[in-house]
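Risk mitigation, structural track. In case the binding assays with zinc ion fail to produce interpretable data, a predicted complex structure has been prepared as a fallback.
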Amino acid sequence: MPQLDPWFFEHRYFETYAIASTVSAWVLHPFAYLHNLEDLWLDGGVLQFIQPYNRREPAIYPVIQLAIEDTFDSWHTLTFRPGGDDYDDEPQNMCYPIEAACETFEIDYQPFLECSWLTFPNDYDPRGRFRSWKAEANAYEEYFAELKLMGTLEELSGPLCDEIFFILFLNREALAGFNRLVAMHLDDLYVDDLEEEYRSLFRSNGVLLRKDIPAWAYHAVYYRDRGACVRCGQRVDRDISPRDTPEIDHIVPLSKGGLNDVTNLQILCRSCNRSKSNRDSNAGTRYERWWSKK
Ligand SMILES: [Zn+2]
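Fallback model:
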């Protein structure tokens, strides 16, 4: 692959939107997906989210990684190999989603059908189909565990997380849901019990110290929200008048456990920011169309 300008990435994988939608459902309905999310909070896992303004991996990345793993864990979905002929339903043209993803990103991997070490049970049909769902589930489980062990899943996560985050960044509601979810778990910690490297990031129990917003995060949010207040739509264009300086709002207030992270920011005009209550942790729902319908 040719080296790209670091401002660009190639959007290549077709399942990206489905995984982004999984992340959104999880963070907006965490109680319905307790089981999917529980690994995130094990052994003080909530601390992985609190590093301020990580520009390489915004705070929501561990949730995206989990959703990627969850998606590829499924043995019951087959898909076409990239570049394969959709009208050709020969079994060898079908593969599991993780295989399709590896081929898309040109990552070396062990194809399922070439795994001689898999204990294919008697009811495996050499044309590549199983005679029972249970046989397939067992074989796939072994295969997936091996791909994890060999680091294939981790290698895939890099480019996939970037693609998925690109979509999620526009979804302020999901980002707010993520910050509310982390805030809920931060609230369970006692700062005095933490090691110094973490303790120093807190102001008090459940509340992080305010960090300066770096220029890259400021610009990202300004351009995403297109220089307009996400509540009332008023332009806050800095070039017109110094009075209109945009105010960056923490969607979930820091005092309510919100993060110092690009996922927790939005643009408000001065008057909407002043009138926002400290209990309000909802994202602005106003988006500017690409063109007017009138
Ligand atoms: Zn406003």
